[in-house]
Automatic annotation (TrEMBL):
PANTHER family: (2E,6E)-FARNESYL DIPHOSPHATE SYNTHASE, GERANYLGERANYL PYROPHOSPHATE SYNTHASE. Residues 1-25 are annotated as: Disordered. Belongs to the FPP/GGPP synthase family. This is Dimethylallyltranstransferase. PROSITE patterns: POLYPRENYL_SYNTHASE_1. Keywords: Magnesium, Metal-binding, Transferase. GO terms for biological process: isoprenoid biosynthetic process. Residues 1-12 have a biased composition (Polar residues).
Length: 379
């Protein structure tokens, strides 16, 4: 067994009943989520950020303004007003709470909330095209409706707008916030590049997968939960500590995404069944299953090695039964359980990081509730 396999096996054995962080046992159970409270936080973020987000999108030249409006769910493909699902709004909610954690009004974090949301959606537009995803939020993706060229151009424009929104504030704090956002964006792009490269490799270690997901998802969530504090005048130590919370929350978020990417209900996720398996993604459940050893792990490795020889054109014709069989092998090898426990371990580490910031008790409780929501969500 390889060193990576030993580590994954040890992690699996330790994760069957509990996980550990800093030498302490952490139970896998997540407290009951304050659904009403979390929904109120998400709605506040959406309500405060959306008008500024719309104004930013209105700066784009036609037809990019229309394409972006479609992506955000404000219009349908015919240009008629729509009330589509604009996403969970976790990042705007975190940016506003971030400002409050630093003792500033939540409105201080609005430019940061909008900037992070613009970068997030820049990445979605490009990711959908690169992954060949035809559905997002129960609608056709931008590249499917308007073509790949518009998906690329609008994504680039949203990234430019994000920096513009911050820099036009003209303050020292805005400059600091922009540096954090551009660093997070570069890491996000690093993570996407790693993700694509892993699809063409037979083996990826658990460590490599966690590094990729920390870049792809953790970096921007870390930025979201520090950018409001920076705009509110927080020092670097406070911002860095909040980033630690956001980074581990991002890893928990992505672990849940990986589970939903294989076993999620398409009615809830808005994506195809077995979506990550169709794209041959080396997500955490797959990587953990391959590293675990045993008959199911070995069979899965043989199947994926055969896929690599066939090429994408032939594997694209697999039927539902084939993907269901692969999902069952991943689960039998322990990949599903390991990933579920990893989400809880990262959740616990994120909550622990909050101890390093002196903040109002209500803000701490709200950050904790959002972390709980991330781990138990179904979409």
């Amino acid at each position: 067994m390889t060193e990576a396999s030993h580590q994954a096996s040890r992690s699996r054995n330790g994760a069957r009943t509990s996980t550990t962080t800093r030498g302490e046992t952490v139970t896998s159970a997540i407290p009951a989520v304050d659904t009403a409270g979390v929904n109120a936080l998400l709605e506040r973020g959406r309500t405060l950020a959306t008008p500024v987000l719309r104004a930013a999108v209105d700066r784009l030249a036609p037809p990019m303004d229309t394409v972006a409006a479609y992506h955000f769910g404000w219009i349908d493909a015919e240009g008629r007003p729509a009330h589509g699902d604009g996403g969970k709004a976790v990042r705007p909610a975190l940016a506003l709470l971030s400002a409050e954690a630093a003792g500033a009004p939540p409105e201080t974090g609005i430019p940061g909330a909008v900037a992070v949301e613009l970068v997030h959606n820049f990445s979605l537009l490009h990711d959908d095209l690169m992954d060949g995803d035809e559905q997002r939020r129960h609608r056709d993706t931008v590249w499917k409706v308007y073509g790949p060229e518009q998906a690329i151009l609008v994504g680039d424009a949203l990234f430019a707008l994000a920096n513009e929104i911050l820099l036009e504030l003209g303050t020292v704090e805005a400059g600091r916030a922009t540096r954090r956002l551009t660093t997070a964006t570069r890491k996000l792009i690093d993570g996407q590049a790693q993700d694509i490269s892993y699809e063409h490799r037979e083996r990826v270690t658990v460590e490599e997968c966690l590094e990729m997901e920390g870049n792809k998802t953790g970096a921007l969530l870390a930025c979201a939960v520090s950018i409001g504090a920076v705009l509110g005048g927080a020092d670097d130590r406070t911002a860095d500590t909040l980033e630690a919370y956001g980074y581990h929350l991002g890893l928990a978020f992505q672990a849940v995404d990986d589970l939903l990417g294989i076993w999620g209900d398409p009615e809830a996720t808005g994506k195809q069944t077995w979506s990550d398996l169709r794209q041959r993604k080396k997500s955490l459940p797959v990587v953990a299953a391959l590293a675990a050893g045993g008959p199911a792990s070995e069979r899965l490795a043989e199947i994926l090695a055969a896929d690599a020889k066939l090429g994408e054109s032939q594997t694209a014709d697999f039927d539902e039964e084939e993907f269901a069989s692969r999902a069952a092998l991943i689960e039998e090898a322990g990949g599903r359980e390991w990933t579920s426990q990893e989400a809880r371990r990262q959740h616990a580490t994120a909550i622990e990081a909050l101890d390093g910031v002196d903040m109002p008790a209500q803000v701490r409780a709200q950050l904790t509730a959002l972390a709980d929501f991330v781990v138990v969500r179904k979409r």
